[in-house]
Amino acid sequence: MVQNKFFGKRILFFSVQTFNLEKEIVLKLKELGAYVRYFDERPSNGILVKGIIRIKKELYQKRIDKYYQSILKELENEKFDFLFVNKGEVVPAFFLEAFSKLHPECLKVFYTWDSFANNKHPEKIIEYFDRKYSFDSEDAIKYNLNFRPLFFLDSYKKIYKSDTKKIYDLVFLGTAHSDRYKISNEVNNWCNTKGLNTFFYYYLPGKIVYYLKRKFDKTFQQFDVKKLSFKSLTTNDILNYYDQSNLILDINHPLQKGLTLRVFEAIGAGKKIITTNKHIKKYSFYNPNNIYIIDREHIVLNDTFFKNEYQDISADLYQRASIEGWLNCLFFEKEPDIWIKNIN
Predict the structure, then answer these.
(1) Is 138 in the same domain as 182?
(2) What whole-number distance in Å separates Cα of residue 140 and Cα of residue 285?
């Protein structure tokens, strides 16, 4: 049992804050019996700080270094079985080197749910880790990492094929970026012509971000600010929308080839999905009855897909797609090549 593997293990966990997913990971590790010390990767989560880190990180490097020096001092008398870094946006090499000397027996685990094209920093620190994973199969090959896609939270199991009355034929829930507005608008317009009921939720962390993006990113000049929300949905909010819907729309970032969390949430909830990610066709759970791929440049939809009943994936793959299966793979059990055939 996975719980027996984690019971009593001491884990130091670094992750950026991502829609409370880091909290869900901590809760699951504790549920499995582990002791967890969590630190935000970033010294601060202010909008300005996030922007500086992404655009010109060197301007904030002294603050980052001071933050990690204070963590080293705080942890100097603690012992850990695992160091777990998720994403690796700013964790400095000096910290990993010093931590390794202080804790030579500690196994260091790295995972990223971002592509290296969007986040280059892991290239500088990946050498310090014992177990290394990416959600992107092409990055995994290029940077000599293990490939491991994302997961769904346990709460999605609760709405799997529930008998809740369906209000929506299709929902889209996501952060506003790139061509999402253009694509989702086209999908929504098609649904309206077919008399289908839809719900679309676009999130941004603040109006300042919107106006900055509108000034520097031409795709945001199409966004109707009245359709944006500056309040993030909770996990319960997402669950309720999914429970009331027949189908999920997934629009991946144009620079990302790895599957989004939305894909795995749909698997966990037993929902059909329409996606712009053509790479999903390579995955072992791909089933055209459950998954419909659209070309983001030329969207064509199909009435029949909306009427199909969801078909179950195998019980083994469903379990491996859960957060428990994900953690077991990262920390203990290297999986066979079950996700994509002939990945190398």
Answers:
(1) no
(2) 20
Tell me: the pLDDT tens digits for 313-326? 999 999 999 999 99
The residue written with tokens 């037993």 in the block is: 270
- Overall domain count for the chain: 2
In a domain, 337, yes or no: no
Range of the domain at 160: 155-319
Looking at the fold, whether 201 and 113 belong to one and the same domain comes out as no
**Structure tokens of 264?**
């795995």
Q: Nearest CA to 158 among 56, 273, 243, 47?
A: 243
Does this model's pTM top 0.85?
A: yes
Length of the chain in residues, anyone? 344
**CA distance readout (Å), 115 to 111, 120, 121, 200:** 11, 8, 11, 26
The CATH code of the domain that includes 100 is 3.40.50.2000
Nearest partner of 241 among 206, 204, 275, 266, judged by Cα: 266
